[in-house]
């Protein structure tokens, strides 16, 4: 029983790490926020943010993961249009 709880904790921690990495990646790639600013926002170092971006980029070779991240990017772009977007000028 104790082993099951430890495994659940480990799985939960891993899932939260993946979610945070995706959030950092989208913040940098889509929103063009600097690595330093993202690090401050997430309570991490800029090198950790850089690593997270590389991890997500490498995982995009998987079609399902790429589709998932692409969907998140579309939502973020819809909510936060790029600066200078003619539709909002």
TrEMBL record:
CDD domains, A to Z: Bac_DnaA_C
GO BP field: DNA replication initiation; regulation of DNA replication
Keywords associated with the record: Membrane, Transmembrane, Transmembrane helix
GO MF annotations in UniProt: ATP binding; sequence-specific DNA binding
InterPro entries listed in its UniProt record: DnaA_C, Trp_repressor/repl_initiator
Domain Chromosomal replication initiator DnaA C-terminal: 1-56
Membrane-spanning intervals of the chain: 22-43
Superkingdom of the organism of origin: Bacteria
Protein name (record): Chromosomal replication initiator DnaA C-terminal domain-containing protein
Source species of the chain: Ferranicluibacter rubi
């Amino acid at each position: 029983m104790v082993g099951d709880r430890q495994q659940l904790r480990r799985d939960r921690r891993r899932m939260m790490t993946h979610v945070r990495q995706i959030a950092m990646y989208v913040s940098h790639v889509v929103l063009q926020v600097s690595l330093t600013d993202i690090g401050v926002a997430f309570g991490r170092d800029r090198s950790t943010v850089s690593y997270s971006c590389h991890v997500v980029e490498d995982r995009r070779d998987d079609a399902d993961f790429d589709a998932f991240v692409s969907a998140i990017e579309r939502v973020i772009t819809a909510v936060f249009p790029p600066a200078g977007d003619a539709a909002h000028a």
